[in-house]
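Local shape tokens

___
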Amino acid sequence: MPEKPLRLLLVEDNLGDARLVKEMLSEAEGFTFDIQWAESLLAALDALSRGQFDVVLTDLSLPDSQGLDAFNAIRCHAPGLPVVVLTGMADERAAVEAVRSGAQDYLAKGNLSADTLVRALRYAVIRQVKSSEHTKSEPERATIVGMVSAKGGVGTTTIACHYAAELKRQTDQKVLLVNLDVSSAGARLLLKVDSPHTILDAARDLRRLDPSLWQGVVCESAEGIDLIQSPGAARLGDEISGDRVRHVLRFVRSLYRWIVVDMGPLNVLSMNLISEVKDLFLITTYELPSLSEANRVLRKLLELGLSANRVHLVVNRVSKAANVSKHDVEKALGYPVHALINNYSSEMYEAYCVGKFLDSGLSIRKHAAQLVARSLGLQAEPSRSSLKRLLFAKA
């Protein structure tokens, strides 16, 4: 019975070299290879996040990385995957360093043959399997929770901060709060922490991103949760790539048990990250403009393929004088309300003035505790129809 094809990720920006490797592997007797080709480090990291591979064959000179950077990035993002380095003569010293750092082998392009290539890839897989038999299993990866605003100014950052702090309290596990609002420094001000670094520092340096670099850009709050600041916390106007932030999130999932992402309004950046999120909270207020925007966002989330059990509608700052009920909002939107939160603006203003914005006795914190408990399965979820039926029942 023939062996299963080896799933190979080939990372090579030179079309001629990539074609040569493919031709050599197609001629291998008794072995077949399922090859996916990436022309850059960023494309390789994206491929690693989407597919399963047995081995990586990577060049050390890529458009977005040079030397050991590509190897180190691949090892950080896929630590259990064997890597074989493909190098030119000018990169031989770096290739030797890669082997010392954990690469299974290196091959010089000038001396490459079908036999040596097949042998190196097969032996790399075999050695990695034997090595993994004597190592501990990979740590549990973090669950990512997203917070999206129906529009600006609905209190999403406030809820995200209290939710993260409550996750820490109820689970006593490592929690990261990611603030992605490119126009503000809200989370930094509310948590009363500061750092010269933002998530841009990690996103721009993916090739060198490792636990040590990460500890240099993240800051810890008094509540014991880590915060990675938004670009707006340092400089207004900085742009951020959703692709790169997605890779940052995938990397830090091995460092935390919970990640709360304050995504801000639904835009190109937040839509790029939705596939990473297990639960998504859509925050709105009960005013007509906010509810109208919430309805538009819900429809967009449906188009993106999210199911109703992943999208939780939270109506914030409900005035008691307005006499608004869950039934009223559900009737208006045709969608179930996960939680109503009363307007506690005065209480929170006073708490912030005395440095107790995240005090566990605040009313908003009690609502956050309930949201976390439901996320942890400590309280039964209400039944839901499908998102499509709820949104378009009257269409």
Q: What stands out?
A: The domain at 6-132 is CATH 3.40.50.2300 (Rossmann fold). DSSP finds 16 helices and 15 strands in the chain. The two ends are 56 Å apart (CA to CA). The chain has two domains: 6-132, 143-392.
